[in-house]
Amino acid sequence: MEACFHGGRRKQAMQRFANKVALVTGASTGIGLETIKRIREEGGTVFAAHRRGKIDIEGVASISLDVTDEGNWTRAISKVVSAAGRLDILINNAGVRESGSVEETSLEQWRRLIDTNLTSIFLGCRAAVPAIRQAGGGAIVNVGSITGIRGTENMVAYSASKSGITSMTSSLALDLASDNIRVNAVCPAAIRTRMVTNWLNSSQDTDAAEAAVLAKHPIGRIGRPDEVASVIAFLASDDSSFMTGMSIPVDGGRSIR
What we know:
By secondary structure, the chain is α/β, with parallel strands linked by helices. It has two domains: 14-188 and 225-249, 3-Layer(aba) Sandwich (Rossmann fold); 192-222, no CATH class. It is 41% helix and 18% strand. It contains seven helices and nine strands, in the order βββαββαβαβαβαααβ. A hairpin with a 2-residue loop joins strand 1 and strand 2 (9-12). It is globular, with a radius of gyration of 18 Å. It starts with a strand and ends in a 7-residue tail after the last strand.
């Protein structure tokens, strides 16, 4: 099959997500937004979930969703199924990044990170699995972090929340395999998102902070959101039909340094 490259994105003649319905959280910017574009371009019906604002992409429906609220999840899944008749794919991308050592991290901050990054995925999967099962199976992709594979200094709560995603992904995969539901995760390192840009800009010396980040990545640069979206799309598609329970680093080689 012929494929071409344009703007760093692989364009395929085949529509991998034709007749598939996907819900993507954390959808307004960065990795979530690029994932929506990718699935939409490849023929999928996409629902963009976020706390506020509207996703201005033709054919993409927006859903207001607080990922830490159980009732919000129930209503969001119901809206998707009512509108599209099914749900095949869940992309758990919503998350927050905050720094702090164990002594600097308040209990409030700890709970905020655990609730937003980890409990949200538990709630999302619990709400979505019956609909995906009803559709005959499908795929769940959780967005973790390289810190879920290797701890990072001064990020005790964030690292804990992302490590939980890695373990939970494996457990979910075992529980759901018999339902033809595959569960995998991507673990990005530094990606040029609003989250990372804000963190760099908050540093006392932005250039020095970025240089330190670059030094951790053998590829020698910060990643792009569309590079992570490409891996998410692969894991959500039938191209990865014999993969489940995996947490895949998308990290410019950081995890092997």
